Amino acid sequence: MSRHNFFDKRTKEISNSSYRRKMIFSFLIFAVLVAAGIFAWKWLNHQPTEQGALKPLRKTLEANEKILQSTFDTSKKSKVYTEKDAVKNVRVNGLVGMEKTIDTSTWRLQVVRAAGDTLKLSLDDIEKLPKVHVIFDFKCIEGWSQVTHWAGVPLKTFMDYYHLNTQEKMNYVGLQTVDKKYYVGIDMPSALQSQTILCYEMNNKPLPMNQGYPLRLIIPVKYGIKHLKQLGTMYFSNQKPPDYWAERGYDYYAGL
Known about the structure:
It is a single chain. By secondary structure, this protein is an alpha+beta fold. Helices cover 31% and strands 24% of the residues. It folds into two domains: 1-46; 49-248, Oxidoreductase, molybdopterin-binding domain (Sulfite Oxidase, Chain A, domain 2, Alpha-Beta Complex). The strands form three sheets. Strands 4-3-12-7-8 form a five-stranded mixed β-sheet. Strands 5, 6, 9, 10 and 11 form a five-stranded antiparallel β-sheet that branches.
């Protein structure tokens, strides 16, 4: 065998041996990762639940919430669109808590300032305040979005007008539908962001019943699960108010 052929053969043997070692090592790593994944999955599914989610997942959501809250800027607006960008056929993102037909002659927004101190406001009381239009990309946790056009009074303007300054200093706003079957908690900085409105119009017309007539929340910095419809009660707390979807394992903060 020539010297040249000997080195070619030797190089080929080394190459094949190195390839086999790499294959074996890769297979072992893959097997370890699969075993670790199975172990982690079984461990996770044996953990207790907390607020509708497995405890480790809830802790992860809470950690994300702290990060998002620490970086939230009340002066920063969601992207603003023009009226021509808004869809005419607005999708409905849920009907929980909307079983009743509302009679605005008797409907009142119950604003609980403190225990035993409730302000009761008619739709006229709300509509007399300065109106703003909010056109934004409404995002649903189901994965769809639409540019939609709404109008109403900024929640910040509403709270200032009705002297809810003490309540503004609290951590959360709690909201409930008229029948109290749907409810959300909103962190106060998001509630006071300039695009958050008590909404009574959609596409320059009164809200349709299935979109929350007579009054709903529009809050562009949150996913649709926080945009409560058929608003009946508003209250304030330093502790997290109950939240319908958070109790079912979803993110409480639901921020964008």
